[in-house]
Amino acid sequence: MTIYDYVSGKERVENILDNDLKIIEKDKVPSKDNFTFENGYISWVTGLFVDIRDSSSLFSNENNENVSKIIRSFCSEIIEILRDEENIREIGIRGDCVYSIHTTPKERDELKIARLAFWINTYMIMFNKLLVKRDFPQIDVGIGVATSKELVVKAGRKGVGIYDNVWIGNAVSKASKLSSIGNKDDYGPIVFSKESYNYFIRHLDNENTEDAYSWFTEHYDKYLGYFYSANIVKKEFRDWINEKII
Questions:
Q1: Domains, the chain, ordered by start
Q2: Residue 69, by phi and psi: left (phi above 0), alpha (psi -120 to 50) or beta?
Q3: pTM of the model
Q4: What kind and span of H or E run contains 155?
């Protein structure tokens, strides 16, 4: 039976509360090696979350083998799409959600993250076609993207190797919330916060002959503020799917 040493615990808490902490503002969130228990960084951060719709129905499916295959293949390829982005700082799985966190010091960095969302949205077309061919249940996802200036600190239990970075701000929490409403009601599968949309839309429009602004629908929520949803796919990838997967 574990017995908590509360006397030592009191000393550890007081050391943390009374210790000098250096908060550094930088254009980019540095790599994890630069974080200590005595510093923290403030930088522009973008979170991207991919959340399975109605996952409780999928998980309640009696065919555990098929459910396991669906979840494994879903996570595998979402991570593959996300992992090579040069400014990625964290990638992981939370229950039925795959997420990534990126440092985004420039507006064009926001466009890179938006493109990841377009790739994922197109991948889901391929994935569901492959599921249908095997008589597996199809899945829908919501993709949430949000941006803000965040405080990032190393937290955990010093000296025992259990620690991670904690992202303190709106980007990660809002991206998670936006992913939970994507592909629901009147919202498109990809949902961007106002900040993220404002940073990349001009660049996206400049790169396309069509009016990129028309691809997005503006929404308002009293808790989330203004945000934008879309159903954008990578044309070459989609055409390949339609040609190769029948």
A1: 41-152+167-244 (3.30.70.1230)
A2: alpha
A3: 0.91
A4: strand 141-157
